[in-house]
From TrEMBL:
It comes from Coccomyxa subellipsoidea (strain C-169) (Green microalga). Gene3D superfamilies: FAD/NAD(P)-binding domain (3.50.50.60). InterPro entries: Amino_oxidase (IPR002937), FAD/NAD-bd_sf (IPR036188). One of its GO terms (molecular function) is oxidoreductase activity. Coiled coil: none annotated. This is Amine oxidase. Residues 4-212 form the Amine oxidase domain. PANTHER family: AMINE OXIDASE.
Amino acid sequence: MAGVAGLACGLQLQKAGVNFAILEASDGVGGRVRTDEVDGFLLDRGFQIFLTSYEEAQAVLDYSALDLKPFYAGALVRWNGGFHRVADPFRHPADGVASLPNPVGSPFDKALVGLFRIKALLKSPADILQAPETSTLSRLQAEGFSADIIDRFFRPFLGGIFFDRGLNMTSRLFEFVMRCLATGQNCLPTAGIGAVADQLAARLPPGSIHTGMNFF
């Protein structure tokens, strides 16, 4: 499989001096991390975003060659017929203050987001992934967040990341992602998300990737 995990595995085998072959059923590398060019437009497959703070990505990718373009650190939340901005107050202080009275959550909720961010930054990724776990919904409720901000912000936001609008995923992953969002940038490569897989594939030995393989 020539998805990102398979390509990264190939890099490790190459580093260890082990001969290998990667077999891929489709006509190219990347799996779900792939970009198609249609009539001059670059179309990423599915919802894609690149977080620069992923430690494994930092270890195996050349960020400068990807020419990463950052997104605004915030979101527009659709509620009651209007859009309401939610901004990272540490990166966009003025927008953060301006968002305090909007209906996405109370000012207290937004202060809790800042406090949660600070607490996450005080922990290492290893500490977070080894911490006692519960569901993300239970964790949000235990932190004191209101039903309004959970339903209007966290549920659609985290539901889009984890494909779980019930917020049943482990609180460890929730805190890990929140830490990544706080320490890095949300970006896309200039050539689309497929550039990540293309860069990994280009570093593997010629002839080690075989596409169009029919297994059945």
